[in-house]
Amino acid sequence: MDVIVVGGGPVGLMTAALLDAAGIQVEVYERTSEPVRQSRGSTMHPRTLEVLAMLDFGGGRRVSDVLLAQGKQVPRTHYATLPDLLDYRELDTPFPFVLMISQWRTEQILADLLRARAVPVHYGTDVTEVVPAADEVRVCVGDTWHSAPYLVGADGAHSVVRKAAGIDFTGTAPDKVGFVADVRLAEPVEQAVHHWNQDAGFASLVPLTQTITRVFGVKAADVGLTAEEVRRRQTVPLTLEELRKSLTAICGRDYGVHSPSWMSKSSNTGRHAVTYRAGRVLLAGDAGHVHLPAGGQGLNVGLQDATNLAWKLAAEVHGWAPARLITGEAGYNAERLPVAEQLVANTQAQDVLMHAFSPGGAALRDLFSGFIAQGGEVARYLAGVLSGLAVTYRRPDGAHELVGTRAPDLALTSDTLLREVRPDRFLLVDFTPDASLAGLASARVEVRTAPPPTGPRRTAWKDVRAALIRPDGYIAHAASSADRLTEAIRAWTEPDHRTASGMTVR
Ligand SMILES: Cc1cc2nc3c(=O)[nH]c(=O)nc-3n(C[C@H](O)[C@H](O)[C@H](O)COP(=O)(O)OP(=O)(O)OC[C@H]3O[C@@H](n4cnc5c(N)ncnc54)[C@H](O)[C@@H]3O)c2cc1C
User: Fold this and answer.
1) Which has the closest alpha carbon to 326: 143, 121, 86, 504?
2) What is the pLDDT of residues 400-413, one digit of tens each?
3) Which site from 52, 211, 230, 302 is most exposed, i.e. has the minimal number of CB atoms within 10 Å?
């Protein structure tokens, strides 16, 4: 094996699928004996669907196609459960909506893909020890040791990998406990309903499917706790009776909740790893960040972590990754750690908006909801953050303004851009009238022609004649001429060479 992935949750499965698609030998160790049917992360945002459109499911379908067939498309979504909603319909994406789909279905689809590709996912294997060394990483499962040159810890919030690699998990301790349950309602709600009650707390009811509704909230009595008290209360399982009582106290009625398919308690711990990489060990998903489940972001950001990680690690394993992709300015840690910091900060902001049970809190919510209702800059900013479409990576000084942004789904001569991006190679989009860039194709660069992009959304593309798209769909290079294009391609796709004097050259 080239890579061992610890954890067969959505992020571990996605990492394995992308590594496999990039030609890497990978296997997954998962503690549970079979896939768990929990609906946890049920909101899939547009950028997640975009990256899943890049992953081939076989039979001409993409993973996104399979998900779309099983989920429900909702064009508007909430921020901090505020009554005025963010409208995704105007977003520049083929997926201008959130897809409501239970997390277990997403996991099942990824597991099906891995099975079809004969990638081993070992269920019922608990990794108890991880020993990183200079040239490999060893893991202990039962009485047996396994090793690989690299290891990805996608083993969730309490990651043994993170601890074994000595990576600190920095942030804030929890001070409140929430309740969450997927239930049926004797008195169904057509759309999301939110209740704030100054004395009793907050509760939301959000339909997930025709029959299942997610109910979540926080009792006022479960706020302002010590971390120890939070832990103690979380260990006491939520009961249907307690849920009924909480809803009655907060909403004045219990909506006839019954037949729960999942019940749990959440907290507002906000932490992220101080680094995503220690030697040959990398972290992804909840192993790298935990936060209040607000705005449906954990799963989405985790899947984006996997997308950023996989092609770079594949390049490293294949031996062609330049240093910038390993530990440099375009490396996994350099690009994704800031996203985790922003994720924790924005869920903390939502925590305050959602859980301030005072007249001041109500006024703050009214004010903020009003900003969203205006549909201006604030709404656009928040939609960009939640949808994942506004995430950008570093743009070097003097580079084209598109560099570091995600490539939109441009029409190419052959297909659309998202369906041409592949996890194992760069895509060079040739906008020249005479297809003059064809000669730059190589094992690591596929060239596709395209008509010059036009229209109000494409003003930044007006003069672009060549665009180099990374395997994760981000723009590595864009220019109005082919000058220095060969140099740019080499800088991304060839290892650095050291001269006798120790200087690094390309
Ligand atoms: C109530 C709730 C609602 C949520 N809603 C949303 C939402 O709407 N949208 C969204 O994007 N996110 C949401 N999330 C967050 C989302 O569920 C998580 O971010 C997501 O599950 C993270 O995936 P992961 O693969 O990183 O970790 P996990 O799903 O935790 O998977 C880790 C896996 O590793 C395994 N494992 C752990 N230790 C070991 C070991 N030592 N050896 C072998 N295997 C091991 C575990 O069994 C597990 O299967 C929600 C979370 C909660 C709790």
Assistant:
1) 504
2) 999 999 999 999 99
3) 211
